[in-house]
Write a structure and sequence with these properties.
By secondary structure, the chain is α/β, with parallel strands linked by helices. Helices cover 50% and strands 13% of the residues. α12 links the parallel β6 and β7. It is elongated. It binds guanosine-5'-diphosphate (GDP). The site of guanosine-5'-diphosphate has 18 residues, from α7.
Length: 305
Amino acid sequence: LRDGLSKTRKQLNDTAGNLGTDLKDTFTRLDSVEDLEYALIAADVGRTATEEILEDVRASRQPNLQQALMEALTLQLEPDARRAQFRKLGFSPDARRTVVDPKGHVVMVIGVNGVGKTTTIAKLGQYYMGRGRSVMFAAGDTFRAAAGAQLGVWGERLGVPVVQGPEGGDPAAVAFDAASARAARGTDLLFVDTAGRLHTKHNLMEELKKVRRVIDKADPGEPTEVWLVLDAVTGQNGLAQAKKFHEATPLTGVIVTKLDGTAKGGILVPIVRELGVPIKFIGVGEQADDLQPFDSQDFVRALFD
Ligand code: GDP
């Protein structure tokens, strides 16, 4: 994880490292507070969160700046409901970790083209199979010619069955077939790839709603998870799109990819704050095992320790 986050890590440590470790000393010098503020904003943590972090650090009982900063940042990576718990339990392994196991059997994976959706589905397959779960994929992006083929290649490589539909066919039909097949076979988890084109006449959001309805129908009684894949490199732009997806198909989780390619890993903070949805996994590379369940404490430790 430290390697995957090396760019953000370097950016933060170059500044925060210069401040020294004594909290009191740092906060009596205006220039060092400004440096810290700058480092957080440069990492895309966002203004409001940065203000809150500085307040928390200032009020911290920790004498050590780095420790206080790590705790304050961890809080910002937790949705509201869990923040209180963290405040109580502190920065410790006892604080409950994000649950990455889907509640039901079907996970719709949505997001804009190019963010790493198909690769992430492959990585998810590898992750859950490694934990003894049976997995299926549905090639629901019938719009992009290569998408089905790409998922097919991953399926073959990982030994995961892939339900395909005709190119240009109805994605809802593929999703329905796949969800029915999953139920019939008793497979533990089905990941449904979806289209991510934006600038076309077809209404992507309406299509996603329909896919969701169809899955609910094929697998009644099971909550369908909807995970949005976001590319960390696109920063704030990606977040604006994320809100549109969230309005159309309420999200139950977020996966942030390409954290290895940016010094702005702080973008996770505004993602959690503005969507109010937990981050389930982070992507830190192109290989099938470059996906990690997200843990706010591990993440912050990898940035500073
Ligand atoms: P999709 O259009 O959203 O399905 O995107 P793809 O899955 O085809 O991925 C687009 C590109 O991003 C591919 O070259 C992937 O290898 C790459 N990619 C995906 N996830 C990551 C990641 O976490 N880190 C890096 N460096 N590249 C990634």
